[in-house]
Amino acid sequence: MFRTMRKFRRAAGTTAVLAVVALTANACADQDSAGAGGNSSEIHIGAWLPLTGATASYGVPQRAGADAYFKMINASGGINDRKVRWTVKDNAADPQQTVQIARELVGQDKVVAIVNANGTSQAEAAFPFVLNQSKVPVLNEVGGNESWFKPPRPGLFGTQTLYEDQAAAIAAWTVQDGAKKILVVHSDPAAFVNVAKQVEPVAKKVDPSVEVDRLTVKYQTTDYTPVISKVKAAKTQAVILILTSPEAAAFLKEAKLQGLSLPTYAYAPVAAESTVSLAKDAAEGLKAVQLVKAPSDTDPAVKEFRTAMAKYEPGQPAGFLALWGWSNAKVFAEITKTIKGPVTADAIDKAYEKATKVETGVSPVMSFSPSNHLGTRSVQRVVVKDGVWTSEGDFYTPPKRG
Amino acid sequence: MSQFLLVLVSGVASGAVYGLIGLGLVIIYRATDVVNFAMASLATLGLYVAVSLRDQGVATVLGIVAAVTITVVAGLLVRETVIRPLGQGQLFSALVVTMGVSLVVENVASSIWGDEPKSFPNLVNGTVSWSGAALPVQSLVTIAVAAVAMAVVGYLFARTTLGSAMRAVAENADTARVVGLEPQRLARIAWALGLGLAALAACLYAPRSGLVPTALVAPLFRAFAGIFLGGLTSMYGAVVGGLTVGVLDNLAANYASASLRDTFVFSFTVLVLLIRPQGIFGTRTFQRV
């Protein structure tokens, strides 16, 4: 009886030890495969996006654009015969929620990279776990700032022209159009102030005789009557708006109401469909810079986007934000195509550092290197014509700042 | 001078919106002891219906009537289903419930109509020149409509039997019941009136701001500042407080600093409350320890 019990205990003990060893081995294997991102027939990537909450109007179309692209390439065989599985989780623009999602994507879903996510502070909250601890790359995030790329950080690559460079591009454009006295109307938070401050040095670089003033407006102001009165009093020749889209629309409507007709320029957040739908005919002639070509372009690459959107995301408009998502997805696919062998985090990192002249047809040509993790400084100039954003010329690289 | 006039008129127009929302909050609070945080999101729901009707070709004025009706009906539904079962005097429970309702309604609006900003038409376009200033007619209409609505509410409470009954219930529901008044019916009327005023305010505010599910959060916040400034229990206080907040807000943004706009307004409110904790028109109450 006792011998049987001893045997049972020994067997149980051995089983327990084996189980622990197996679990440990499995855990180690999990850690090793954290960058494996699915099996040999698929590439599993993930993203956090604000699909609900205050900034869902950015996240939902961005997801639709990227989804349309991934569905399109999967339908034609994927990337080097590997299907792309893009797992998207809603972070409601909340940094804390983003950290939780990052743990799920990396720890449970075993994604090989975070691709085409959204939000600066949200990504920054997840960097310690994703980039530093797990060594999983964060690629083509919508958002970001200069400090992300200077100096370059391992695993972090961007495709979005910095807001500061957008301001430089607008400044150059305004001066090239002949304005000698420019007023920059901007919201008061530091992020807007910093962008607005970039206008003067570049404008003076293009033409030293140019005068640039700034007018600060409280963030989320809806009443622009007194602001327009101040703009009139400033006797300026052109206005640059560093505002959100609804604020810019309020500015334009009030300017039209008060009979103020000045060449008006804006940065990419204003170059949105919402500005035109809110400001209606007051937006006519508004000039802005964008990260991508206008979705209404007749260019074949943009047509491909519209066709895929109609086919795979019929409920979503084929607008700028969807095109951002599409463009970021395409940059990832184009670079990942160059990987020979397993698509690991390390392989992606190396492929990005070697990627030069990545063409999507809808966004500027991207070039990366070990010392440059931001793919572009260029923008597309767009103008509202007959109520539709229309591309003007080719992609434009602004003069260097500073 | 023209700049000051513009700042003043646009401040009064903003203040009129805050005053109307504040008045709605005070009417509901006095009648039912509920601080209704869901008021703004319910009014937003009404606005979305108005925009949908406009997209179908319905006239703006009819859309506004629909917005007020939807807001009132939705609000009464909320009261009957989740507020009334809490019972009388559950101030904090009701507060949390209305906050929850507010979030739910915002999400419902977001899932039905999306988060892309939508435009809401002006009641009237154009400007009027006065002392060299081009005053938007929409601002003047906002002030006029708000003034008429406030006057009607004032008349209702001061000169009608219904108003007297509502005041009696607000003072003491049990005593009012003894003299034959129906507190629940009067509470429903108070909710309908309060929500109707909020919906009207929303229709006056939306042409400037555009419409997103959270469009009325900022004016609700300022309306609260107004009613605390004016006195939580005073209808005059809500109106005067709202107007004060609107005008100070604009003066600070234009003559001090845009960044200090909220700091200026809320510092003033805190200062007033330090001197008069019950607000400018509020009644001081004493409670046994």
Automatic annotation (TrEMBL), chain A:
<dbReference type="InterPro" id="IPR028081">
    <property type="entry name" value="Leu-bd"/>
</dbReference>
<comment type="similarity">
    <text>Belongs to the leucine-binding protein family.</text>
</comment>
<dbReference type="InterPro" id="IPR028082">
    <property type="entry name" value="Peripla_BP_I"/>
</dbReference>
<feature type="domain" description="Leucine-binding protein">
    <location>
        <begin position="42"/>
        <end position="385"/>
    </location>
</feature>
<dbReference type="GO" id="GO:0006865">
    <property type="term" value="P:amino acid transport"/>
</dbReference>
<keyword id="KW-0029">Amino-acid transport</keyword>
<keyword id="KW-0732">Signal</keyword>
<keyword id="KW-0813">Transport</keyword>
<dbReference type="InterPro" id="IPR000709">
    <property type="entry name" value="Leu_Ile_Val-bd"/>
</dbReference>
<dbReference type="Pfam" id="PF13458">
    <property type="entry name" value="Peripla_BP_6"/>
</dbReference>
<protein>
    <submittedName>
        <fullName>ABC transporter substrate-binding protein</fullName>
    </submittedName>
</protein>
<feature type="signal peptide">
    <location>
        <begin position="1"/>
        <end position="29"/>
    </location>
</feature>
Automatic annotation (TrEMBL), chain B:
<keyword id="KW-0472">Membrane</keyword>
<feature type="transmembrane region" description="Helical">
    <location>
        <begin position="227"/>
        <end position="251"/>
    </location>
</feature>
<feature type="transmembrane region" description="Helical">
    <location>
        <begin position="57"/>
        <end position="79"/>
    </location>
</feature>
<protein>
    <submittedName>
        <fullName>Branched-chain amino acid ABC transporter permease</fullName>
    </submittedName>
</protein>
<dbReference type="Pfam" id="PF02653">
    <property type="entry name" value="BPD_transp_2"/>
</dbReference>
<comment type="similarity">
    <text>Belongs to the binding-protein-dependent transport system permease family. LivHM subfamily.</text>
</comment>
<dbReference type="GO" id="GO:0005886">
    <property type="term" value="C:plasma membrane"/>
</dbReference>
<dbReference type="GO" id="GO:0006865">
    <property type="term" value="P:amino acid transport"/>
</dbReference>
<keyword id="KW-0812">Transmembrane</keyword>
<feature type="transmembrane region" description="Helical">
    <location>
        <begin position="133"/>
        <end position="158"/>
    </location>
</feature>
<keyword id="KW-0813">Transport</keyword>
<keyword id="KW-0029">Amino-acid transport</keyword>
<dbReference type="InterPro" id="IPR001851">
    <property type="entry name" value="ABC_transp_permease"/>
</dbReference>
<feature type="transmembrane region" description="Helical">
    <location>
        <begin position="34"/>
        <end position="51"/>
    </location>
</feature>
<dbReference type="GO" id="GO:0022857">
    <property type="term" value="F:transmembrane transporter activity"/>
</dbReference>
<feature type="transmembrane region" description="Helical">
    <location>
        <begin position="6"/>
        <end position="27"/>
    </location>
</feature>
<keyword id="KW-1133">Transmembrane helix</keyword>
<feature type="transmembrane region" description="Helical">
    <location>
        <begin position="189"/>
        <end position="207"/>
    </location>
</feature>
<dbReference type="InterPro" id="IPR052157">
    <property type="entry name" value="BCAA_transport_permease"/>
</dbReference>
<feature type="transmembrane region" description="Helical">
    <location>
        <begin position="91"/>
        <end position="113"/>
    </location>
</feature>
<keyword id="KW-1003">Cell membrane</keyword>
